[in-house]
Amino acid sequence: MTVGTDSPAEARSTPPHAPGPPDATATAGPPRGATADGDGFSGIHPDDLPDGLVVADETGRVVCFNAAAGRITAVPGDRAIGLPLDEALPLEDLKGRRWWTLTDPYGGLAIRRGQPERNLLLPGGREVLVSAWYVREYPTGPVRRVVVSLRGTEARRRTERSHAELIATVAHELRSPLTSVKGFTATLLAKWERFNDEQKRLMLETVDADAGRIKRLIAELLDISRIDSGRLEVRRQPVDIAAAVGRHIQVHTTAGQSPDRFFVRIRPGLPALWADPDKIDQILGNLLENAVRHGDGTVTIEVAPARTGDDGEEGTEVTVSDEGPGIPEESMSRVFTRFWRGSKRGGTGLGLYIVKGVVEAHGGTITVGRGPRGGAEFRFILPVGTPAHLI
């Protein structure tokens, strides 16, 4: 290792064939969007809403059908205005039952306030997420309006695909070490007397290494869950980040990397850093492993004082760069997403996603770019983070 130093909203919809003729003003929509009320509601036009909005009046006929509802249902808004709600939105549940018949918004219990979001089908089998709100003049009075919200299922399907991919990745990553652990332990239990001490030690060391790999993967999954839910806790303590860098480099050199492959530059004047030591180790471990595994040549780590935020708060900047092929320009926007892999040299593709989440949990920022020698360069900046009671 080389070390260097330097000086709503409101709208209306229609009930299923509720009695009563359509209002005369509901027979045609205004030029912008399809509503019976002209200029929208409370200063917001229904077409300004990102979700589909359908509103039926007390007679069960549609008086508002915004542009997003038209896109989702493929029904022109001007054609929907004045129709009974069950004709404008002929929804069925996943068992083929008519939804408006099941829910009966204008009848049934007078204490109902609406229907929670659920997955329903439009004609042709198109899926849509639907929720409804029943507007009454007083708590148990008759329904005066039924407000229906429509959303496409694309976002939910992307989430489901992401979860499925996460499960597949975890299953794949767990299979290999678990097979090894199971195989070696079964062999030792069945044929203990046949192996000498050196062979037993080798097998147990392999089991220990694979168990550690499983433990790390489970820790990654827990971190992802906490990051996604905003529950990642940071336990701040004084951190000597230069010493932490040295420890991680020692791990790599002990594992067989040449000490000459690492160059560390510690700039003078580093402010006292309060951070979570375990999380800092996690950040440095992922970035150094990424540089060693996917990069080539010398891995340079530079630690320097920095200014963060609009108020110029003191902070610490850490840069990790290598001399490998670098990251293609078109891929840089995806580096910190789940399952991104820069090469086919293994890994779950979760490390950099976790690094970004941990840095941001500290109130810091992280960026990726091209290093001075062509390789990938990751730079993260952490604010000093001094606890309030010490300021």
List keywords for this structure.
391 residues; alpha+beta; 6-stranded mixed sheet; 6-stranded antiparallel sheet; 9 helices
Helix content: 25-40%
**Overall 3D geometry?**
elongated
For the largest beta sheet, what order do the strands appear in spatially? 1-9-11-12-14-13
Poorly predicted segments: 7-33
Strand content: 15-25%
The total of beta strands comes to 14
Specify the structural class.
alpha+beta
Q: Biggest sheet: strands, sense, closure?
A: 6 strands, mixed
Number of helices: 9
* Rg, alpha carbons: 30 Å
Ends distance: 37 Å
What's the average pLDDT?
Answer: 83
Summarize the helix and strand pattern as letters. EEEEHHHHEEEHHEHEEHEEHEE
Task: Describe this entry's structure for a reader.
- By secondary structure, this protein is of the alpha+beta class.
- Helix content is 34%, strand content 22%.
- The protein is built from nine helices and 14 strands.
- The chain has helices spanning 67-73, 77-80, 85-88, 99-103, 154-191, 197-229, 241-254, 277-294, 351-361, and strands spanning 2-5, 34-35, 52-56, 62-65, 114-121, 127-136, 143-151, 237-239, 262-266, 273-275, 299-308, 313-321, 365-370, 376-383.
- It has a six-stranded mixed β-sheet with strand order 1-9-11-12-14-13. The protein has a six-stranded antiparallel β-sheet with strand order 2-4-3-7-6-5. Strands 8-10 form a two-stranded antiparallel sheet.
- It is elongated and about 80 Å long.
- The two termini are 37 Å apart.
